[in-house]
Automatic annotation (TrEMBL):
PANTHER family in UniProt: DISULFIDE BOND FORMATION PROTEIN D, GLUTATHIONE S-TRANSFERASE KAPPA
Annotated protein name in UniProt: Thioredoxin domain-containing protein
Domain Thioredoxin positions: 49-249
Source domain of life: Bacteria
Comp. bias intervals (Basic and acidic residues): 70-80
Keyword list, A-Z: Disulfide bond, Membrane, Oxidoreductase, Redox-active center, Signal, Transmembrane, Transmembrane helix
Coiled coil: none
Source organism per UniProt: Yaniella flava
Bias (Polar residues): 42-51
Region (Disordered): 41-83
Amino acid sequence: MTQQSSRSTPPWLLPIVVGALALVVIALAYFMFAGSDDAEQSGATDTTEATGDSGGVVDVAPQSEGDQVDLSHVEQRDTEDPLSIGSVDAPVAMVVFSDYQCPFCATWSHETLPVMMDYVEDDELRIEWRDLNVYGTDSERASKAAYAAALQDTFWEYHDALYPDGEIRDAADLSDDALVELAADLGLDTEQFTQDMQSEQVQEQITANESLGTELGAYSTPSFIVDGEPMVGAQPTDVFVDAVDEAVAQASG
């Protein structure tokens, strides 16, 4: 008689399987941005004109020197860009792809952005903001309102107000009337604000910013490019501090 043996999975095999799956996830997130190199080489991305549903906590920094992706060409360094802050000559630039209906973006803006602003004040970092609007119409309306506020030199104040206490606003608070009321609360010229928010120029800029993100393969928010290297997700503040510190140190030689 032949006996059929039944053996359970060796206990040492489980960590290996879990580790392998984690590497696959990281690799997929990394290649979300990696395709942008092909776009650059074929001329598909015009960074002079161009400016997902939820953010995860995934570090897509290259895993080795051979895998390194340089996305520094995405930095515009434009003195006339109303959505940017920091010297155009800062040694390090951070491009942020965000959405005003993304709770992870709200968390990052509330907890990490103030720390990044310290680097801006020290002339070590330039931040360039790009709205991706993956959540749809409400997000796009909010991004147009933020751009209209930027044209009155109040982008960051309006941006912070769209994320009160690190939370997203209800959809009802992103109607045209609510956004104009918010502008009034910040002391803006509401007539000019309304005109700008509805203008073709602002719509073109918002569309260009969205196109930049999608051409890079950034389909989730928040996504970042720090000193040319992609990162995805509202990771702990220390992760961004370490990345900027390292980039500043490298730039200073």
